[in-house]
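Progress note, sequence design subtask.
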C-alpha cells in the first residue's frame, strides 16, 4: 500500500523545481517573441508582455530572398521527409537481408555499419563535397537528401537489424505457404510489424536532419536554396539585437518537428523499449 511520506513530498518538490527550471528557457522564448519592439528595451526578460503582439511572426514570415523563412521551411521539410523515406526503404531492406542471411558476409556488413556509426561524418566532408560538385548535386535539396541518406543509412540498418533478429520467422513462413512472394512478404507482413523500429528511425533521423547546420551550410552555400537553420543564422546576423523577431524564428522552427514527434512518439517509445529489451 502506498504511503505519502515526508520523503515523497520532498521528491515531489524537487521534481517540480527541476521541471520549472527546464521550462524556463521556453518561457523566455515565448514571452520575448510576443513582445513589441518597444517592450524589448523597456522591460526585463522575465516580464510578460503587456499585450500579446504577433507582429514579430508576421515580419519573419513575410521575408523574401535567400533567407526567406517560408521557403527555408519548405526546403527543410523536403530534405527531412525525403531522407526519412529513403532511410526507411533502404535501411529496412538491407537490414532484413543481413538479419536473415547465415553467411559470413552479412556479419561483416553489420559490423561495418557499426564502425560507420562511430566514425564522425565530418571526416569525409571534403571528398563528399568534391564528388557532389562533380555530379552537380551541390546547391540542391536532392543532393542533400542523398548525402544524409548515406550518412544515416548505417544507423537505420543497425536499428532495423536489431529488431529483425528478434522477430520470429513464423509469419514469413506462413505468408510463403499462402503463396506470397518475397517482396509481398516483406512489405505486407514484415515491415508493418516493424512499426516501432520505423518510428525510431524516423524521429532520430528527422531530428538530426532538421537541426543540421554544418552540412546545409557547406553543400547549399552560395545557392538560393537554404534550410531553416542556415536561414536562422543569417537572420540573427542581420537583426543583431531584435530578439523578439529572432525568438519568433526559433519558435516557428520548433513547431514542425514537435508536431512530428507528437505524432510518432508512441512508436518511438515502443521502439526504444523494444531495443533495450532486445
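Output:
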Amino acid at each position: 500500500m502506498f504511503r505519502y511520506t515526508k520523503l515523497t513530498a520532498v521528491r515531489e518538490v524537487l521534481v517540480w523545481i527541476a521541471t520549472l527550471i527546464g521550462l524556463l528557457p521556453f518561457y523566455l522564448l515565448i514571452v520575448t517573441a510576443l513582445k513589441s519592439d518597444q517592450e524589448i528595451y523597456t522591460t526585463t526578460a522575465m516580464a510578460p508582455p503587456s499585450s500579446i503582439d504577433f507582429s514579430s511572426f508576421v515580419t519573419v514570415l513575410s521575408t523574401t530572398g535567400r533567407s526567406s523563412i517560408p521557403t527555408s521551411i519548405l526546403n527543410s521539410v523536403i530534405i527531412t521527409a525525403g531522407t526519412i523515406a529513403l532511410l526507411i526503404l533502404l535501411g529496412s531492406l538491407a537490414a532484413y537481408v543481413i538479419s536473415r542471411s547465415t553467411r559470413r558476409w552479412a556479419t561483416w556488413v553489420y559490423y561495418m555499419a557499426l564502425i560507420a556509426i562511430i566514425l564522425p561524418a565530418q571526416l569525409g566532408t571534403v571528398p563528399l563535397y568534391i564528388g557532389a560538385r562533380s555530379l552537380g548535386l551541390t546547391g540542391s535539396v536532392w543532393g542533400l537528401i542523398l548525402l544524409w541518406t548515406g550518412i544515416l543509412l548505417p544507423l537505420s540498418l543497425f536499428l532495423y537489424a536489431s529488431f529483425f533478429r528478434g522477430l520470429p520467422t513464423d509469419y514469413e513462413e506462413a505468408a510463403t505457404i499462402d503463396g506470397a512472394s518475397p517482396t509481398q512478404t516483406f512489405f505486407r507482413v514484415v515491415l508493418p510489424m516493424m512499426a516501432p523500429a520505423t518510428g525510431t528511425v524516423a524521429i532520430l533521423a528527422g531530428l538530426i536532419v532538421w537541426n543540421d547546420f554544418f552540412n546545409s551550410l557547406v553543400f547549399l552555400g552560395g545557392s538560393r536554396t537554404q534550410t531553416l537553420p542556415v536561414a536562422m543564422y543569417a537572420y540573427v546576423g542581420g537583426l543583431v539585437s531584435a530578439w523578439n523577431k529572432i525568438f519568433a524564428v526559433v519558435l516557428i522552427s520548433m513547431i514542425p518537428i514537435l508536431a512530428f514527434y507528437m505524432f510518432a512518439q508512441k512508436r518511438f517509445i515502443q521502439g526504444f523499449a523494444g531495443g533495450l529489451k532486445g
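The mean pLDDT is 83. Work on this subtask will continue into the next period as scheduled.
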